[in-house]
Amino acid sequence: MTAFDRRDVGLLLLRLGAGGVLAAHGAQKLLGWFGGHGIEGTGQFMESVGYAPGRASATAAGLAEAGGGTLLALGLATPAAGAAAAGAMAGAAAVHAPNGFFNQEGGYEYAATLGLAATGLAVTGPGRLSLDHALGHALDRGWMVPAALGATAAVTAMVVGARNRRLRKPEQDEAAAGFDAQASLSGE
Question: Where would I find the H helices in the chain?
Answer without folding.
Answer: 6-31, 38-48, 54-74, 78-96, 109-124, 131-134, 144-185
